[in-house]
Design a protein that fits this description.
This protein is an alpha/beta fold. Helices cover about 35% and strands about 20% of the residues. The protein starts with 6 loop residues before the first strand and ends with a strand.
């Protein structure tokens, strides 16, 4: 992406991703205004973004008001970075506006909420850019990412898990499947990747294989699959032996730490 002097709105969820995207956007000449959610967005984004507008989770009227103000100020581009846990749709503190919005959705999940937010931006003349455009240096390259490649058993589990994970993603449920000896042990739903991995360890013991992929029709504007040091920590705790991710579509944070921890634990990581 070429450098630009366009002001940019950053819809900021959790994790370090919003801060990373903000820095990359600024390096390309953007002035970044972050829309942050109290209790969800990492407060570190305030140290990076040029301006931060804080809102409460589920305050739909506040979101609409801020988007209107940004549009009136001439902002015509936005990017979403970070996630909001899907279990937040059951948060009683979400407010009447959120509950009314959720009740109108045919399927209640965070992707539907995010797409609704994207439609709100579009209605105000604000284009939602691909988050991946700001994360090119963090996308997984193809091949083995650690000292030890997957062995024959793990390769068989990866192949089986890949097919299941793609089917799961096609249903817009989750991105992660855990397999052991070609049997599906755990599927990711609302609990998230780390809890899914740990649950699989409790069910099947050591030797599980984790597969995390992009959805077949992945919207590159949001919800990219991400792994970080927490992923490897969960694998170590569960006794998982291998991880397969999708090259070019999976964001890797703390890459050096991930490789060091995986090598120390003899975990294989393959991007395919």
């Amino acid at each position: 992406m070429e450098s630009s002097s366009e002001p940019l709105a950053l819809i900021a969820g959790s994790s370090q991703m919003p801060s990373i995207v903000a820095r990359e956007a600024q390096a390309r000449g953007h002035r970044v205004t972050a829309l942050a959610i109290r209790g969800i967005t990492d407060e570190a984004v305030a140290e990076v973004a040029d301006e931060v507008r804080w809102m409460e989770w589920g305050d739909v009227s506040a979101f609409l008001k801020v988007v209107g103000e940004l549009s009136a100020a001439g902002i015509r581009q936005a990017v979403m970075a970070g996630k909001v846990e899907q279990k937040r749709i059951y948060d009683s503190g979400g407010g009447k506006g959120l509950r009314a919005l959720l009740s109108a959705l045919p399927i209640r999940h965070t992707d539907a909420l995010i797409k609704t937010a994207a439609n709100v931006l579009a209605s105000h003349g604000i284009e939602l850019l691909n988050c991946s455009d700001f994360l090119s240096d963090y996308l997984a390259p193809k091949g083995s990412l650690c000292e030890r490649p997957p062995d024959e058993r793990e390769e068989a589990d990866i192949k089986h898990g890949w097919e299941i994970a793609k089917a799961l993603g096609g249903l817009d449920i989750g991105q992660t499947v855990v397999v052991k000896e070609r049997a599906v042990v755990a599927l990711e739903a609302m609990e998230g990747t780390d809890d899914c991995i740990r649950r699989a360890g409790e069910l099947a013991g050591p030797g599980t294989v984790v597969v995390k992929v992009a959805k077949p029709k992945q919207d590159l504007r949001f919800d990219l699959p991400v792994i970080g040091h927490g992923t490897i920590a969960s694998m170590i705790a569960a006794g998982a032996s291998a991880l397969a991710i999708q090259s070019g579509s999976t964001v890797i944070f703390d890459g050096e730490r991930i490789r060091a921890d995986a090598d120390a634990a003899k975990i294989a990581i393959l991007a395919r």
